Amino acid sequence: MTMPLPDTWRNNPLPPLSLYLHVPWCVRKCPYCDFNSHALTGDIPEEDYLGAIMEDLAGDLALVQGRSIQTVFIGGGTPSLMSPGFYNNLFRQLGEHLEFTDDAEITLEANPGTVEQGRFQGFRAAGINRLSIGVQSFNPQRLKDLGRIHDDKAAHRAIEAARNAGFDNFNLDLMHGLPGQTPEQAITDLEAALAWEPPHLSWYQLTLEPNTEFYSRPPQLPDEDHLWEIYRQGSDFLHQNGFKDYEVSAWSRPGMASRHNLNYWMYGDYLALGAGAHGKITLRNGEIRRFWKTRQPGAYLNRIGSRTAGSQTIEPEERPLEFLMNALRLTSGVPENLFTERTGLPLSTVAVKLDQLRTENLLEPGRIQTTESGQRFLNSLLERFL
User: Fold this and answer.
1) Given this model, what pLDDT does residue 13 score?
2) Residue 10, pLDDT score
3) CA-CA 20 to 30 A from 277: which of 21, 167, 260, 358?
4) Domains of the chain, CATH where assigned
5) What SS3 state is found at 307?
6) pLDDT tens digits for range 252-298
7) Based on the number of CB atoms within 10 Å of its own CB, is 92 exposed (0-12), middle (13-18) or buried (19 or more)?
8) pTM
9) Are 292 and 271 in contact (CB under 8 A)?
């Protein structure tokens, strides 16, 4: 039986709107990567891809009429393989159909092996105002183990080039729990990163995902005791240096959390363009729709008209778990009224279970936020809402 939406939904404001744009090409597929990325065989068809993106957008414009884009994230693949000219043309053409807020956060993922200072300056001139640099490690051996195309020197050069190009808002991507990594090496990576005074770090544990080379031929990873010690020492180090873990694997200095990431975790909306991109849009009639684009780059380029490969409506009974899976990743949680604003459902839908979890000291009172114990057992906590 489908849960009905209350009439009060009609009075709720629509969630903030972001844009995710996917660039599917990379120089070489990393053995741990399960993203929609495809090793290059020849030149990138930039002009054709731009045309396909704009046709893709044309099919989705009716979904977001009258709404402004507040953040943009360009992921991949390796988006920094595209030329500054591509992004200049992209944002010029997007601006003819979409409205961007004056303070829109526009992030580009960059691989240290594919950029130099002149290119960063071009990205900046195209309107990109935030970078996410995929360092992963500053240890030469760990980078080889991960199959990265750059070494530690290239990582340092890329960060320096970004700073020289005027990017004062940037993220450094780092992994921990790498093959053969000791707690001391993990701290050394963090020390090297903090020497560049980044406002934001993504620091997350390497996991073996299906359909990857590492999954079929697993490397020797640190055992559970070492993994916990890496996390404990690294967390203490980052806290001591003024960083807050505002989300499970995202750390920032005060006021520098990624607005795009926050919109995901707060169950906001995001338009999706590009091969394999996924989106979520709330419609004015209360329907919430998830959709995904044609995955293979060749098929995306050659398709005529809409590139949407599939879509589904998120039914009311599915929304509580979806909302909580996102919101409870935030260490500070969210106010209770956000549940109704983003799902269209009254808080009473989940109130009994929330109260039960509070009596067990897994949630904080008066807010949808885990305690320290709740964060440690987040997966089993969420199972209570199935």
Assistant:
1) 84
2) 55
3) 167
4) 14-264 (3.20.20.70), 316-386 (1.10.10)
5) coil
6) 999 999 999 999 999 999 999 999 999 999 999 999 999 999 999 99
7) exposed
8) 0.94
9) no
